[in-house]
């Protein structure tokens, strides 16, 4: 995707991801997370008091976002993420007012390269708004599988993808050239009857293990049974139902434009920080 993409680690098998998402869609995808993100994205976009003429919904596995963003967007088209990491995004330079993406960018191998291409595709003062899985998502499942594999199989294999950190994403937005970058996280805790019900939902999301370093031989049934036991022992509520954490990390940034706020130049402040703190503490 960029000059250094050939040197980046290939964490994800994107062809396998595409196949699993297609299978989930055929069988009836579980969409509660995507529905929530689409609703939140509509609220965030409506806060921006301007109209967008031409936008792209990049990689979102469903049409919920496009259905939700009807206000202030004249045209919002779907665009897929390439399966090959060396294939560029099919986005012309400075052609778009808006790029949105929901629950897709966490499976990109070259996220810095994709962000840079999105930035180039935006017109001056164009907006990028995205939500991706990140943070502590599925930390309970990760810990339970690690404990079960260590106990039953004598070793641990990667099963849950490493997710991006909030601070790292802010830095990536800046590196890509976005102005006014903002990141925040929305944590959702979902309860299930047991770990197998959670794994069924993940299959229906097309979000099961697509790591290139995944185990290639079937796991023992005893490993799954022990994983479910560990999950229930460590992460169950008093009623016996288990908890599953999903962190939705939000990113936004603008293509630079002269009308945007600029940070003050060093030394140009009218009041020192010490004076400002002192003044804030004075009685009103």
Give a short overview.
The chain is of the alpha/beta class and about 280 residues long.
Structure description:
The chain has a domain at 5-136 and 162-189 and 246-280: Rossmann fold (3-Layer(aba) Sandwich). α5 (139-152) packs across α8 (221-235). The protein has 9 helices and 6 strands. It has a 6-stranded mixed β-sheet with strand order 2-1-3-4-6-5, sandwiched between helices. The chain has helices at residues 14-27, 32-47, 64-68, 111-121, 139-152, 166-175, 195-204, 221-235, 273-280; strands at 52-58, 73-79, 96-102, 122-134, 179-192, 242-254. It is an alpha/beta fold and 284 residues long.
- N-to-C order of helices and strands: HHEHEEHEHHEHHEH
Average pLDDT over all residues: 83
Shape: elongated
Question: Percent of residues in helical segments?
Answer: 25-40%
Q: How many separate helices?
A: 9
CATH topology of the domain at 5-136 and 162-189 and 246-280: Rossmann fold
Structural class: alpha/beta
Radius of gyration: 22 Å
Spatial sequence of strands, sheet with the most strands = 2-1-3-4-6-5
Question: Which residues sit in consecutive blocks of at least 5 with pLDDT less than 50?
Answer: 276-281
First-to-last CA distance: 56 Å
Q: What CATH first level of the domain at 5-136 and 162-189 and 246-280 would be assigned? A: Alpha Beta
Major beta sheet summary: 6 strands, mixed
Based on the structure given, which CATH architecture of the domain at 5-136 and 162-189 and 246-280 is correct?
3-Layer(aba) Sandwich
What is the beta-strand fraction?
15-25%
Number of distinct beta strands = 6
**Relevant CATH superfamily of the domain at 5-136 and 162-189 and 246-280:** Vaccinia Virus protein VP39
